[in-house]
Structure formats: C-alpha cells, structure tokens
Amino acid sequence: MLLHWSTLEPAGPSNLAALRFSSPVRVRSLRIFPKDALPFAEQPDIVSAVRVVDSAQSNNEQEQPLGFVLRFGRTYMVTEPEAFVLEIFFNAHPISGDPKQKQKATNVLVPTSVAYSGGYADFPVDMGSEFASRLMIVKGNFTKLSMAIYGDVASELPSAPSSYVPGVLPSLNPTPLSPALDPANSEDPTALTRNLLSLIPDAPPLPLVIRLMFCLKPANDDWDLPDFPYLHPDLDEDPVDFDLDYAYQLTSQPVADDVPLEVLQRFADRIADAIGPKSEAQSYLIAGILSRVACQHRELPRLLIDRIDIQAVFDSSVMDEDTLDHLLVAAANPDIAKELSAANLPKELEIVARSPGLDPHVKRTAQRVIDRLRSWDALSATIQEPGLSFAPARGILHDLGSDEPSFGVALHALITHPDLATTIAEAEGLIELRAWVGVACVLAAYAWADSVPNELCRSRAFGIMRVWQGVPGYRETLNHHLLLRQMIFRLECMMDDDTPTRSGIHAEHVLYDLTRDPRAFLSPHLIKCLLQLQPGFSVINETERATLRSLALLADDGLPAVLEELVQPPARPVSADALRTLRVAAILLAHELDSGDPGTGEWAALNALWAQQTHGLLLHLLATLEVLAADGQARFSFNLSPSLANSSSNAQFVDLLAGANEVLQVLARLIPTHPLPGRAAHGIVNTAADLFACADAADTLNSPDSTCVAQGLRGTCVDVVRALEPELVLRALLRRGADVAGASAAAQDPVRRAHHALSLVDLVLPLEPDAPHGDTVRRALPRILLELAAFFRALDVDGRAHLVRRLAELDGGVLGIAEWLVLEELRTLCAALRVLATDETAPDLWTVKAHQVVVALRLLHDLMRGTAPEALRILGFVGADPEPAGLLMMAMNLLLANRVVSQEQVELAQVLVQSVSTAGATGLDRSLCFALALVFLRAVQHVPPTLTPISHALDALRQVPIRIIEPDRLSTELGDALLVLASSSSSSSDSIGAEAAAVLSLLEWLVDQSHAGLPQLATLRGISTDTFAQLCDALADALPATERASLEHVRMHLHTAPEEDAVLGVLTPLPQPTADVCIALGELLRPRPQTPQHEPGTPAAAAATARQHAHRPVTPPHARGVLSMVTVSPPTALLRSPAVRGLTKTYTANDFRALRQTPSARQNTSRLPSTHVDVRFSLYHFLFSSRPVQLTNGPSF
Predict the structure, then answer these.
(1) DSSP state, 93?
(2) Secondary structure tally for the chain: helices H, strands E
(3) β 121-124/69-71 pair status
(4) 1183 — phi, psi (to 5°)?
(5) Measured between alpha carbons, how far is 339 from 331 in angstroms, rounded to an integer?
(6) Residue 105, SS3?
C-alpha cells in the first residue's frame, strides 16, 4: 500500500531531510519520479515536472501539507538533480508478537543507500519481519526529491495463525522471455543487435563491427580520422619491395566487402610468390596473415590457403609460441581449418605437443590447435544435421569464446558464410547455437556503443544483459563471453564514475551477477578487476565488495591458499559466504589438478599440502562433503531445525548442491590414483547417496536452475560410486537401504531412502551382462547375500521386482541369486499365511500379515508375467522346481483353508496355468496344478466371469494325474462353483454364456476321471438335484445344438445330493495396501495401558491373573529348541551353585571367588544374553520382516 508521497527538500549543513510516520510502518519499496512524468496513473493532475513560476502565478498557489505545490489545479513533483546518491536511515522499532506487550523505544538507525540515475526508479527495502520504523532520514546531494513510499502499517499486519490450516500451493507459471529478446527462437539471431546498432547514428554494419571490436582492433589515431570506420587497405597496390611483412601489415585493416575478386586473386598470388625457404620468421608471418584474413571477405582466406603449400611452410621445427597463437586464431575459421587439416598439419602439431623439452604453454597451445582443427568437423556435422547431440558443439563453442580473436573470427564466419547462416536460422534443433550467436552479437554492439560512445545504445545493451543473466541458458553463455579481457575492462571503466549513471549501475549489477559463478574466478582479468575495486559503489555495498576482494585474493594466492581453505570443513549450517568461498576453492583446485604441467597438478597439490604440515587431502574433502550433504538432507528432514527453517531458500539450496557437486568432482578426479581406506570409502558412498537423494528432492523445486544442478549432481554421484570397488559400494548401499530405522534415517522417509539406494544399486550393476566389470560385480554378489536379503525386505513391490529382474539379467541363471530371493519370498508368504490361520491372531496383526500376503502375491505375479527371458526363467523355477513349487502349493492351500481371497491370487494362478500352453514351459508341478485348479474354482465366487476361471481350472486339472487328485476337496470346491453358476444363471441368462463350453468340458472331465478310478468324483457335493438341473438347462440354452448330447451324457453319469443346497462359506477378502495397514501397525505398536491393581483373593484379582497368564509371551513352537543349542556343563550349574541356601543366594567373605574356582564353573563361562536392553523397533521392519517378533503383552508370531 502507498504509505506516503511527497517532495523532500534538504535542510541544514548536513543536507538532511526527514519523515516521521504517525505509527510504525514496514517499508517495502521506494519509488523516485523524474520530471515530466505521471507518478500515478489514476491521478492525471499530479505531474512530476520543473516549472518556473512567475509572480502572477504565485498568487494562485496553495501550500500543500505533504510538501507539494498546487498550481492552476495541478500538483507538481520535482526531483533535482537528475542523478545522485542517497543515504537513507530507518530507526529500528521492534515489533512484538504479543499486542499487549509494550515495546521500548530505540534509537538504533539502520542505514542503506540508493543510487538514482534518472527516470523512474524503484528500490526494494527489506526490513524483515521483526522490526518496523517510525522515522526515515534522507541524506544526499539533492535539492528536491519526489518520492513515494510503499509498505504496510505494522498494526494492520495479519497476526500469525494459531493453528495450521492446509491449503493448495499456487501453480507456478514462468513468464516467457519476450520474443524481441529471445534470439534462440528467432528466425534471425542478429536482428536484436541490428536494432541496437540502429540507435547509433551512422553505425557500421554488424560484420564490420565484429572485425573492429574483436579481430582487427584499430589504432587510437584511427578513431579521429574522417573516414573511420571505413578505412580499407589497397590490396591492388604492388610495391617493388612487396614481402610477407608488408602483406602482414596490409591485412591489419578490414578489407572492403565490395572488393573485386580479381584484386583478391592477385594479392594471394603475390603472397604465394613471396614465400621462400622454410624458417621460423616465415612461418610466423604466414600464420599471422592467415589469422588476420580469417575474419575478412570469405574469398580472401579461401584463395590464400589454396595458393600456399602448408607442408612447405609449417613443420614441428619452425612453430614457436607466437606462430601457434596465430594458428589458433586462424583455425577458428572453418575454411582455413579444413585446409590445414587436409594438409596434415595436426601430425606436425602432435610432435610439438609431445616434445618433452618444450615449454608447457607451447605444448598446451599446440594441443589446442589440434583440438580446434578437429572440432570444426563435429560442429559442422551438428549444423548440417541438427538432430545430433549438441553436447560436442557446446564444448567447441566454449573454446571458441575463450579468447577475443578466435571469438571474433568464429562469430564473423557464423553470420557471414551463407551456408552456415541459413542453416543456423532455419534449423529447429540449433537453439543453443542461435543463442550463442545472438548473445555474441549483442556484446559486439555494446562494445561499439561504449567505444563511440553512445549512452542510449549502451544502456539498452546493459538492460538486455541483465535480463539474460536471469534466464538459464542465456546466463551461462553471456557470463562466459563477459570474461573476455575487453569486456572486463569495459565493465571496470563504467564503474569509475562518481556520479551514478544508468550504465554504471547496470555494470555493477552485471559484474556482481557474473561473480556468482565460481568458475568466473578462473579468469585472471576478473581477478585483477576485483582487486582494484575501491569503496563507493552505487549497487555493490562495502560488505559485498570485501567479499569479492577476499575471493579474488584466494584465487590470486593460488594453490596454498586454496588448500588451506579446503582442509577446514565449514561449520553447520553452512553460511552463504562460507559456501561461496568453498565453491571458489573447489573450482580452483579442480582447475589446478587438470592443468597437467610439470610441477603442477596433483604433485603441486601434494607438495603444498605437505608444506602446510597436513596430509590426507581426500579425507579433508570428504569431511567437507559430509557437512554439505548433512545440510542438504536436513532441509528435508522430519525434524527441521529452526536455523535451517529460517535461513533456507531455494537459491541457497541450489548453491549448496552445486558446491557439493564441485567438491565431489574433485574427489572423483582423485579417487582412481589415491585409493581410500575402507571406512572412508563407505563414508563417500553414503555421502554420495545422501546427495543423490538431495538431487532428487531438488527436482521438486520447479526451477530450471535446480533441475540443471540436480542432473549434474546425480551424474557425479554415479561416477563416484562406479569408480570404487563394486563389493564395497553394493554392501554400503544395501546396508543403507535396509537400515530404515537407524540413527541416520530417523528423520528421513524410509521409503524414499530405500528407493534412492535402489536407484544407485541399479546404476552400479552393469547394464549388459557382458560389460567389462560384469564379472567383478558377479563375484561380489555371493559375498553380500545377507545385506541383499535385508535390503530386499525393505523395498516395496515395484522395487523388489526391479531388483530381482536386474539380478536375473546379470547372472543369467548361473548364480541363481534372483531365484534365491524368490524362494525367500515364498517362505515369507507361507509364514504370514500360517499366522492368518491362527484363531488367536489379533485383528491388527491379521491386517498386517494380510498385507504381507498381498504384497508377496503381487510380487510373484509381476515377476512371472510377460515373455522376457528373465520372467520365463523365474516362471520355470517357481512352477517346476520342487522346493519353490511346494512352497507355492502350500501357500495356495493355506489361502483355500483360511477362505481368504484376493485378485492377486487369481492373477498369479492365471499366469502359471497359461504358461503351459503359451510360454512353452516344460510343465508345472502336478501338485501345484491341482492347488491352482482349486483356486480357480474358488474364484468363481468372487471374480467376474470375464476372467473365465472355469476354463483355467480345466486347463490346470488336465495337467494333474489321477493319483494326485483329492476327490473330496475337488468335489466340494466344484459343487460350490456350480452352485454360484446356477444362481447367476437364474438372474441373468447371459452370465454363463462365456463359460458354458468350459463348464461342459469340466463336467465331462469329471465323468472321465470317475470312470478312470475315482468314482467319488461322480457325486457333486453341496448342490441339490433341482439346482443342478437348473444349471444344465441354462447350459443347454447357452450351448450350440451339437453339444446337447454331451450335456445329456453328463447328466446321466453325475449324481447330486437330494437335499437342499449347501450354504456357501464366508470368504474374507485380503485388504489392499491402504492406510488401514498403517492404522493397524499403530495399534500394534501403541503402549498397552497398565493393568489396575486388585486386592489379593478377590474375583477381580483372579480374573486379572488369568488374563495375564493368557497373554504371557511364550516361546514360539518353531523356536522351542533354542535352549538345546546352549551347552551347560554340568547342567546343574545353571540352576544352583554349591553355596545356595534355599531359594536365594547370599555371598559372604570369599564365597564368590571360591565359587569361580570350582571345576564346574571353569568349564563354561558363557552366559545367555541379557534382555534388559533398549531396542528400537522399526515400523517398516515390522511391516516387511518375515522373522518372528515378540510384542509386549501380545501374541508371538
């Protein structure tokens, strides 16, 4: 809201003006108005202007209470001069959360500064939530100041809510970049730059601007010549003393674009004729000429390179440092690079790059020339085929933008070569390349506007840069180009003016945003600029200037200062300044390690560390990384600390992850050559897993920056764990995923923790069985079976299925680890079903175990469905191998006996039965087939007819030999199924149509089996004669006429009981994984209330005693033999010692020592473990563990 608006006029020698508010306010922003402006759109009578008022008008003036002047019915606001710096002071008035508590007055003044450069200007003010202000003091070199103050009245601010009210988060719709400022999606990426140049009178064309600003920089005197910038050399001049040095000087000026082709040909011929014997001086001049013509008229470098014999001019013996520098610039031209590569120049350059006695800089430059010559092939392929990956081209463009001449040559070629320019403008897949060209062209226009100078064009260019610095993609490209020496110098010059200017304020913003990227401190030009910054800036305050200077000093001091910073882990929570320093140090160390020069790299780092009397660089980096990972995990903890809750923000979190990624990259660089000890290796695996989880959480921030950082961090985490020993990595990850109740996981979501561990395990396992490290992983798996089993129990259904498939694919059935996990799951299923069969099972425990059954059935179904080789192998193992088939048959029989049903049970049986005919299986276990047939017959009662349970039951029964059939069970289940079918046919004639043929075939099979040796099957149980006749009538209506005879044959041979139909038993459906399971777990884990005390001998006391004995924990039947494993010699030593008196024992004098000296006591000194320990119970383990767990005052299972 608008708090105040007025025109302030300073008073007194200190040039002060003050505003006092009637009540405490919280200022949000200030707006200063220029002259000739309408401050408020709804108040056209208020005009900001400067008017000279004569004496006639002065009689009509009225003084306004707010400091305005009303003239002829209009209020005029005045701001003078046009630019100045203001110092503003607010008194700090504390705000209490309790409105009844009176706050003491304070005289503390909080300062801030404002730099006004003209025009409309808004300045945000952050007063925080704990303070307000009643006084505002303004100091500065101004005469009048028209200003509006926006904010809130402290007494009207909404109070903090007393209770939590859930709400819906607002949807974030990012504002798209204006098409005029988006060259990446423009048909002409240079259109924005041409519009900027149109603001400059008589501006030269863009190609000429690029040549003059980056490639062929004019002399200082040339700027004053009347024909500048159109100063072109006379290439047709043929002096008598024409030589290579004269040609080199002649090409220092831009050649006119309209020069005739014949002139260029004659000039190229004269240069070719001037070439003599091979020498260093001649190779230097030829390389220099090529570098200067690389940005000229396109035909000139083509003609020149065609007439020069490259092999006769260049070889490894005549290429010094200056020659290589010229060749590096010339190679930025695609035409020259193509011809140099064709002339086999890279072979000579490789000799230079590998020469042991040369200067390291010369060798590096030679390698850069080689890389650039080869890179144009990749860049050209990307341009001609936009569908290819742009990653190689991105690195090439980064290299081309590292030095000004190469930058100018490449940019000139991309916008002037018709084949390249047309493809770049039209291809949809070259968005990044168009952005690179558009940003580079704007910088060229800015450089020209700054040189002329032209404030309008320069300020517009600065405004565009500031917009781009807030847009991912553009920001990285622009910041990399701004590190050029010329750009840093121009920014530094723009900030030297004492009077605030719009361009100067923009320059400060651009420079400060540039330093947010720690990679910027690799630039020596930026470091020099920051070290020379003096106090008194408009935007950068003194604290920020001191921070930038300290970072620049860190980079300038080199490796010793970097290592001194990295060996000291930051304190938690990591502050923004400490994180910024850490990131710069990590980037500088990584750059040093990658330099590869003698005396530098790892050797220099180790020597510098040793000089500081420190060692173990990797351990120091790991300690720092653990602090960053802990801070990142704490932001998503269930118990968020107040310090993190108050200080955290998305931007700080993204910076934290970026810093962790940079430190982790240094560790990844050192691990192959510096093996870690076991504990440290486990530590880095766990830290990488924590950061992997943080990267996954960063994706939820809906920010392009967070997504980019998260993607890079995930890749680095994967690279680190893959670089370590597979057994160590897998063991650490499996333990981490299984430890869902440990101290490290107490404040984290156990499901997500296990999921992230599974993701890393999946990435560590080779994608192909025949991968290079596949044998190493396969050898490690048998040694981590215990960890693998515990981790498997902690996963959900999808996670378990994915892990089993990956292991099955990896070992190909040789190790059988996937089959072993499936076998353990079958044992767990049977154990849970045995608990369900117990009558004394508590309802909550029944719900939990029923959930385990559903999970196991769903897992088995997911693993065996489909036609993948892994699925078929597991299907054959479960269906045909005696042990797993027997366990599955037991599980199905327990389900039938308990009369519990589920959709998963039927789907699993369906997959198994269908495998006999569709998957080409060798055959299911016959006893299992019989159990599956009973499952399908039971399914008639609870699944829709569309699943055709009768058909599947018939398929299963046809696989069962007569000796395995249990006629009583089969007759009972079949009678219930036929009773359900008869009931459904009476209500709907179409309900039996789909299964009519299958029912008839099943009845015929019964008749055949009754004749083959099982006469009991001829009698149907549970269905009366009338009901069976009703069913047969329904079948007759649904079957074709040709099947009527078969139906009559069945009716004649099957018998039914004359009594009434049997009452169907109640079926209990298994619950689906819902919140009911969590509620049941909560009930099971809730402490039991204390039993009330009763008087001894009363009926209440007797009943309480009986209840206590009824619920007393007892040894489970399957564990009653545990005492037989304890050897006590002699057995009586466990019960009574020689000094026992009655039922108690009292030791006197040396009785205890004498007791320990008896032979019986020395035979065995072991004792049973004490049960008086503090046991942490895991709800998650309770849900998924198959081991017996003893609950207090509850049954054992």
Answers:
(1) E
(2) 51, 16
(3) unpaired
(4) -75, -35
(5) 10
(6) coil
Closest residue by Cα to residue 977 from 1015, 1037, 1021: 1021
**Separation of alpha carbons 358 and 354, rounded Å:** 9
The closest alpha carbon to 973, from 1025, 1000, 935, belongs to 935
Collect all residues with Cβ–Cβ distance below 8 Å to 1013 and sequence separation of at least 6: 962
DSSP code, position 1174 = -
How far is residue 1171 from each of residues 405, 1098, 1168, 1174, 1175, measured CA to CA in Å? 79, 33, 9, 9, 9
**CA torsion, ordered 599, 604, 607, 612, to nearest 10 deg:** 140
Tokens linked to 522: 């690799």
Q: SS3 for 1012?
A: helix
Structure-token match 């009303």, residue found? 70
Q: What percent of the chain has pLDDT over 90?
A: 22
- Tokens 């070199």 — which residue? 141
Instruction: Return the bridge partners of 900, or none.
Output: 1068
Pairing of strands 16-32, 121-124: antiparallel
Contact 999, 1035 (CB under 8 A): yes
Confidence band (pLDDT; 50, 70, 90) for 1140? very low
* Rounded Cα distance, 888 and 883, in Å: 9
Predicted local distance difference test score (pLDDT) of residue 413: 93
What CA–CA distance (Å, rounded) separates 948 from 937? Answer: 10
Which single residue is written with the structure tokens 């009363």? 1098
Residue carrying structure tokens 């459904």: 984
The two tokens of residue 146 are 């028209």
pTM: 0.77
| Residue pair 602/593 in contact by the 8 Å Cβ criterion | yes
CB 878 within 8 A of CB 856: no
- Give the type of residue at 595: S
Residue carrying the six token digits 């970049």 = 177
CA 874 to chain centre: 34
Tell me the pLDDT of the chain averaged across its residues. 79
Name the phi and psi angles at 453, rounded to 5: -95, 160
Distances, alpha carbon 717 to alpha carbons 346, 438, 569, 688, 711, in Å: 36, 35, 20, 5, 10
The whole-angstrom separation of Cα 872 and Cα 393 is: 45
At position 130, the amino acid (one-letter code) is E
| Residue 493, token pair as written in the block | 């010059």
Higher-pLDDT residue of 695 and 79 is 695
Which phi and psi angles does 960 have, rounded to 5°?
Answer: -100, 125
State residue 6 phi and psi, 5-degree precision: -170, 175
Cβ contacts of residue 421 below 8 Å, gap of 6+? 414, 415
- 3-class DSSP string for 920-951: CCCCCCHHHHHHHHHHHHHHCCCCCHHHCHHH
What's the number of CA atoms in the CB half-sphere (13 Å) around residue 400?
Answer: 30
Under 8 Å between Cβ of 633 and 625? no
Neighbours of 869 (CB within 10 A): 12
Q: How far apart are CA 1078 and CA 1086, in angstroms?
A: 12
Within a 10 A sphere around the Cβ of 730, how many other Cβ atoms? 25
Contact 765, 781 (CB under 8 A): no
Write out the two tokens for 1082.
Answer: 């909560």
pLDDT digits (tens, 9 = 90+) for 778-790: 888 889 899 898 8
What number of other Cβ atoms are within 10 A of residue 219's Cβ?
A: 10
Q: Are 505 and 117 in contact (CB under 8 A)?
A: yes
Nearest Cα neighbor of 68 from 48, 84, 86 is 48
Cβ-contact 811, 766 below 8 angstroms:
no
CA 184 vs CA 181, 188, 412: distances in Å: 9, 9, 18
Rounded to a whole number of angstroms, the CA Rg of the chain reads 43
- Listed as own residue / partner, the contacts of 523-528 with beta carbons closer than 8 Å and 24 or more positions apart are 523/483, 523/488, 525/483, 525/484, 525/485, 525/488, 525/489, 526/483, 526/488, 526/552, 527/552, 527/555, 527/556, 528/488
DSSP state of 1144: B
Tokens coding 471: 């847009």
